[in-house]
Amino acid sequence: MQELWVAKETKKKERIIKGRDLVDVVFSWSLLDVLNSNLYEGQVGKIPSTFTSTKEYFDSFVNPIIEETHEALLSSMRTLRRAPAFKFWEIKPAEKDFKPPKDLYYKVTLQMMTGSNTINGGQNLLEVNDLIAVTDKRPIRIDDLRFSNEPHVLALVCGVNEDNPHLITILASKPIIFDDDDDNGTLTKRGKGQRKSLSVFGVNLINMMTNIRIWTALHPNLEGGNLKLISRVLQSNNEVDGGSCVACKENSKGVASHHSTRTLRSFKLNTSQEDAILHCLEAKRCYHSNNIKLIWGPPGTGKTKTTSVLLLHLLKMRCRTLTCAPTNIAVLEVCSRLVKLVSESSLRFGGYGLGDIVLFGNKERMKIDDREDLFDVFLEYRVEELYRCFMAMTGWRANVKRMICLLSDPEEEFRQYNRVNETNLSFKEFVQERFSRLRKELQHQFTTLCMHVPTSLLSYRVVEKMNQTNYLLRDIAVSDVMGDSNESCHGSMKHVLKEDERLENDSRKQDCLEMLTSICESINLPDFISKLELKDLCLANAYLLFCTASSSAKLHMSTPVELLVIDEAAQLKECESAIPLQLPGLQHAILIGDEKQLPAMIQSKIASEADLGRSLFERLVLLGQNKQLLNMQYRMHPSISIFPNREFYDMKILDAPSVRVRSYEKNFLPEKMYGPYSFINIAYGREQFGEGYSSKNIVEVSVVAEIVSKLYSVSRKTGRSISVGVISPYKAQVFAIQERIGKNYNTGGSFTVSVRSVDGFQGGEEDIIIISTVRSNGKGAIGFLSNQQRTNVALTRARYCLWILGNEATLTGNKSVWRQLVDDAKARDCFHDAEDDESLAKCIERSTTALDDLDKLQNKKLITFENSIWKVWLSYEFLKSLEAIANSEINKKVMRFLEKLSNGKELQQEVEVECEDLWRQQEIDDGLSLIWAIDIFKKNNHHVQVLKIWQVLQSSDVSCATEHLEKHYRRYTKTKIKRCRYVCSQGDFFIPMKWPVDSDYCTKKDIVCDVSRSFALLSVVEEEETVTP
């Protein structure tokens, strides 16, 4: 295979950057290279199924990763307008690291930019390993990079200041050169120069973090990686799961195995789940070989529950285990389930034991702020909590010592206090204030230590003492602290205690003092620990760690990990699994997944054909490795599960008793077609291309909206909780459905709607699933809808009802799984025509009529109504909004209003109402508004006043649309705005005006001239089409 990169020898003193070879490859691409989708065509070989050596194994992934990185960069160029942009306020070479011609490190101060391209919500402008393009103008389109005065420079973000994210360090592909600007008095700065208030802009293209980590894992010589498990998966080998270790199998039949079996029964697992867990625990006990176990978890079979129970047992065995997954969502789900199990089964003393569980990763991408159930185990929050306990002056040890001094000799503490403080506090007031504050702080700090310090650093006996101390401190009164002390020296009478009270007081204080002293002596941790040290301490001493596979790279320098668990393993690229598989000390791995569901997402067609998206799980299955099947599903009504079970799993999956009972059958709508399982035929759908060349079907959008509306009505009338999921394999269809449904059902009540792509729904489930298949054509072409893994995911998300919308003729016009699905629905009397439902029939009729009307308006910028004097300019957004609504009745109302407006008389009434903005709003229907304005259109060497129709949208969305219009009109000159605002009336009519193109000002002479010729304007603009509503 041709190498797409050449390894370079690195001098010992040269700064080593992880993945630098990959970065240099990216830096070598010109803009034409980036835009060439076939740059590496014929140079990326297919990844084999078996390998002769670890070198061949790693090398086989190198070229596909380069191609995938190239495709990601190319894709970002296509959407440059939507990419976050920023301006450089200051840039200067990094003093120590700037070493031309290769190590071009710069220190940069970023300037926030207003507008649509800035990052919202206070997030960091940039992150480490973001790849940016630097140019001398704000880049909006590719041409801005191609035709700038200076060629654009690619740069990699190497560092971001945590306290001030506007301060970053970048590695540039070329020296950043600034032009002379004599008018502004600035100087050209080359190489080591410096310049403030620069006209230098950047745009964030892609983040290379994951690919750089993969690249580093593919070159383990630099890191000295652990290759024990990698070596086990090179060839077809049924012994990879540890089946050959007879000694360990014999030992596992002893007491430990029996105890595990008895414990598992308390979690009410089925036999296949118990067997899978015991099989993994058996592998964990093996010290003679390195094992990789596979757990096969089809949809709804309790894969996450099985994983969490397995992890709970590993926690009790104090086995240091890393659990990772391809996505943050998957990691959060399994971690959440484990924390819930731990909280229900084994936590004592306010969370003691949670310190053995650590979740870490990118806080923003994980959206941890929305996951309160995970606050106590998330590393960043834990470090913040512990940091306050380990501050030198106010930490737990300092407070314990202060409390010991106060209880031992309160009078001496009071004297020392008075030496440094000028106060009028009495002795009693001092004791009361000091004791109350210290007691409160210690109670909080003891609780924090119990919850967040790993159990290996904080014994159970010490935790008991902390708990007892909290109780003692709660029972001690201020008078107990004062003891025999009196305030006679301060002018007060001595307080004498009775003998029995004095003895009880002394006993309480003495017990508390002994406890506090013992706690201090028992915890062998420094008085002060920095945040970085706390982070390392938590990671190094936890038993269960959770993160994405990519983030596991952070553990390569930490305490060795014994066991690796990969959830959703079939969705993880094999080369990415190489990151955690090489962790120091790793002995065994457990892969949990289902190769019958979606694989990893690959952007490059070339890389996909090379099998870059194939997982280690899938390859081992293809090589015949044994896998433990979870064979009972708890999610789907049997009418839903039967087809995917037969089609994808050879009827190996059993329906759990809980889904076979009659009460599991739910009737949400009365019609027969809304039973547990239905194929609803939409014979007159319209397949179109949406944004990004993705397919959409507006008729199906309308049907989905109608069904959702009916379900919502049922929920409101009955108070019934209903969760609905709408799935489509096409992004354009997902967007169209989201746009149609809008925020109507986001009320936070008992009715919820989630609209996502098939890929976005993997792992999810809802009461009702509606699938929009989109494809409707005479060729029987269904594109990537034919993908069986994608089909399997879509068909297995519903609990009670699955309704599939599609065109029978199109879906059966090929030999894909969809033909079998339609035939199966007919055989089971689950096939229905949408027109059988009267409301759906009307909905389809409205949609098809509306689409026919819109077809007449396509590619027509200006239209003229009969007997009108104003031309009407239909914007692209307006046509798209009508298409999204797809309702012929709404269309008619809109066109009637436009006809009235264009006759000039209705326009006079509208314009006479004072308005500061250039645009106007007209309510068309309940909840729908039309946005329009008087604008200027250039035609035949004249600027002509026309009616610009901007958009029809939900009234609740008008504010967002007007923000967009404000930005649009800011680009208008003062002259153009004056012309938009200028009105000319003749009698009861408002007349459109025109001005010569070469006229720069709106003069009185121009106006008078145009008034005399106002009716002649009707012939200025060519008649594109006469419309009759």
Automatic annotation (TrEMBL):
Pfam family, one: AAA_11
CDD domains: SF1_C_Upf1
Cross-referenced SUPFAM superfamilies: P-loop containing nucleoside triphosphate hydrolases
Top-level taxon of the source organism: Eukaryota
Domain (DNA2/NAM7 helicase helicase) ranges: 268-605
Domain DNA2/NAM7 helicase-like C-terminal, residue spans: 612-808
Name of this chain's protein: Helicase sen1-like
